[in-house]
Amino acid sequence: MQRTVFKSRWLPYLLVAPQLAVTVLFFFWPAVKSLQLSVYRVSPFGDRSTFVGLENFTKLLADPDYYASVLNSFLFAGGVTGLSVLGSLVLAGLATQKIRGLAVYRTLLLWPYGIAPAVAGIIFLFIFHPAYGILPYLLSFVTAYEFNWLLKGWVAMTLVIVATAWTHLGYNIAFYIAGLLAIPASVMEAADVDGAGPLRRFTAIVFPLVSPITFYLVVLNMVFAFFESFGVIDAVTKGGPGQATEIMVYKLYKDGFIGLNLGSSGAQSVILMAIVIGLTVLQFRFAEKKVTYR
Amino acid sequence: MSAVGTTQLERARVRVHAADAPRRRRARGGGLLVHTLLIACIAVVVFPLYFAFIVSTQDLQQVVQRPPRLLPSTHLLDNYAEAWRRASMGRMLFNSAVMAVTIAVGKIAISMLSAFAIVYFNFRGRTLCFWMIFITLMLPVPVRLMSTYEVIGTLGWLNSYEGLTIPLMASATATFLFRQFYLTVPNEMVEAAQLDGAGPLRFLWGFLLPLSWANIAALFVVLFIFGWNQYLWPLMITNTEAMRTVVIGLEQLIPRSGTELPTWNLIMAGAMMALLPPVAVIIFMQRWFVKGLVESDK
Amino acid sequence: MPQTKSYRWSTATALLLASLLLLAPAPAFAKTEIHLWHAMTGQLGESVNALVKQFNESQSEYEVKALRKGNYSETLTAAIAAYRQRQAPHIVQVFEVGTQTMMLSGAVLPVYQLMKEQEMAVDWKDFIAPVVGYYSKDGNLYSMPFNSSTPIFYYNKDAFQKAGLDPNKPPQTWKQVGEYSKKLIASGTTKCGFSTAWPSWVQVENMHALHDQPFATRRNGFDGLDVQLLINREFGVKHLNQLAAWQKEGIFSYGGRMGTADPKFLSGDCGMYTHSSALIGGFTKGAKFKWGTAQLPHYGAPYKKATSIIGGATLWVMKGKPAAENRGTARFLKFVSDTNQQMWWHVTTGYLAISNSAVKNLEAAQHFKRNPDQFTAFAQLTKGTATPNSQGLRLGNFVQIRDVIESEMENIFAGKKSAKQGLDDAVAKSNEILKEFAAANKP
Question: Which CATH number fits the domain B88-244+274-293, given the four candidates 3.40.50.300, 1.10.3720.10, 1.20.1290.10, 1.20.120.450?
Answer without folding.
Answer: 1.10.3720.10
